[in-house]
Amino acid sequence: MVKKLASLGFPQVHNVNEDFYAVIESGDLPQNDVLISNPPYSGDHVERCLEFCSETKRPWMLLLPNWVAKKPYFAKTLGDASKQVFFIAPLKRYSYWMPPDLVMGASKPDWVGEDGKT
Q: Residue 61's pLDDT band (boundaries 50, 70, 90)?
């Protein structure tokens, strides 16, 4: 990701494998102009990430499934700003598959079909 963004003219990228929430809690956030993330869709990660984005008042781009915008927490968390969010989507629908070992059993998210398609 660092090399790709640098090739697009963004040479200062913080992309470190660390606990995002622990960094927020510590108050040791790196200087940033924009947050780009693909948060986990499980648990309360999406809601927590949106809360952070809403509080920072800085631009953000999140890779999220479309059902997130219909969740009650989306409008509640973002307030009036939820009406200003815009979405970018491909012209043709695409599906991705979860690895088979994640599709089986209790770990399978509700939005994933038995075949692993989302």
A: very high
Closest CA to 68 of 98, 92, 38: 38
Q: Are residues 18 and 6 in contact, defined by beta-carbon separation less than 8 angstroms?
A: no
pTM for this structure?
0.72
Neighbouring residues of 64: CB distance < 8 A, sequence distance ≥ 6: 39, 41, 46
For residues 48 and 42, the answer to whether their CB atoms sit within 8 Å is no
Helical segments of the chain, H only: 2-7, 20-26, 45-56, 72-78, 100-103
pLDDT in tens, 42-57: 889 999 999 999 998 8
